[in-house]
Amino acid sequence: MRTQVGIIGAGPAGLMLSHLLHRHGIDSVVLESRSREYVEHRLRAGVLEQGSVDLLRDTGLGARLDREGMRHEGIELRFDGESHRVPMTELTGRAITVYGQQEVVKDMIAARVAAGGTILFEAPADRLSGLDSAPVIHFRHQGRDEELHCDFVVGCDGYHGISRPTVPDGVLTTYERTYPFAWLGVLAAAPPAVEELIYAHHERGFALYSMRSPQISRLYLQVPADEDIADWPDERIWAELRTRLETVPNWTLNEGPVLEKSITPLRSLVVEPMQWQRLYLAGDAVHIVPPTGAKGMNLALADVALLGDAFAAWYADGSTDLLDGYSRTALRRVWRAQQFSWWMTSMLHRLNADDPYEAKLQSATLRYVTTSPAYATSLAENYVGLPEV
Ligand code: APR
Ligand code: PHB
User: Fold this and answer.
1) What is the pLDDT of residues 172-191, one digit of tens each?
2) Does the annotation mark 383 as catalytic?
3) For residue 123, how far is its CA from the centre of ligand 2 (angstroms)?
4) Of 295, 301, 294, 275, which is closest to residue 286 (Cα–Cα)?
5) Active site includes 199?
6) pTM of the predicted model, to two decimals?
7) Degrees to nearest 5, angle at CA 91 with 61 and 66
8) Ligand 2 residue neighbourhood (C-beta within 6 Å)
9) Is 295 a catalytic residue?
């Protein structure tokens, strides 16, 4: 099998890249280890920056997003028994859209299929070769060993993929931070009690109120990193959510049947550079952010927007400037998002129960960010996404 750009992974990064390349007349094949059903239903985050929404719209992927996505012009910060709105659109002129990542993935797959694009599901890549001149992706499909020959390989295969580990030792540098807590996430058949997201700082830990539709709420609780989901029956989850969220007068949570629950550890990670020979890396394969800043999917899309232009230039006239600059350019946004996600995480979570000084600092930061337009604008412009970094 032969194509121009071989893409590993059918998450937002790999699918969007394939879609962008198609629009430039460049042929690609996407290899995905899981089934279509699996990737279309995998529950992930759901906040799109203004720039991501614009990219999806401008490339013909905006129809259902415009119908079903929920545009939010502010977020609420809840702490010390008070509630404060950060008016993001008033401060920045831009907004976010709440639309589940798996919905974005469904729309991308539908567009690729309609355009006759090739996505092979249940086709795990297991090895790369020839990356210095004539790359080959070795993969399994329908019980057989197969080879995909291409001009370039793009690893969009997430942190546990095979692309990044292919790069020899000593080439890449990893920058990393782990946190001693995780998020317990719940999807519930309950109409959201509010129109905007609530980020709540509480002495028992952080809580987040989000949503997926007018009927479905998405809620999160900070829990210790080694927590077992078996210790969290639904009633305990609702009780803890009530404690952390019902902290302001006349406000109650809407409860409903729990449809799904899981625990995800929080982590910050960047691997540099994002390229080696003819292998380019994008999305979670090379950087992970804690979900507090809602940046994961947006960074994946921003990476491949750069790669789409870079490959277009190379195939048009052989120019290598954009390809050569890919890692350097992408890393500016990646590090901006790292800093913002780390800052949001540090401001909102219960960090160290034995350090009352830290808790006082957090309250002071929250108060400052909700009273100073300058500081609030800093939060807002990062949250809605900076056009240039
Ligand atoms: N061969 C083929 N596919 C693979 C392999 C492999 N060896 N290893 C992993 N994959 C697939 C995974 O099954 C997954 O579908 O690569 C895909 C990676 O997709 P995502 O994890 O969605 O990563 P990405 O596209 O970079 O999007 C980042 O996803 O994890 C969230 O918070 C993150 O929102 C962010 C987004
Ligand atoms: C979500 O809706 O899943 C969500 C929203 C905001 C975040 C993280 C997750 O910061």
Assistant:
1) 999 999 999 999 999 999 99
2) yes
3) 30
4) 275
5) yes
6) 0.97
7) 20
8) 45-47, 197, 208, 210, 218, 291-292, 294
9) yes
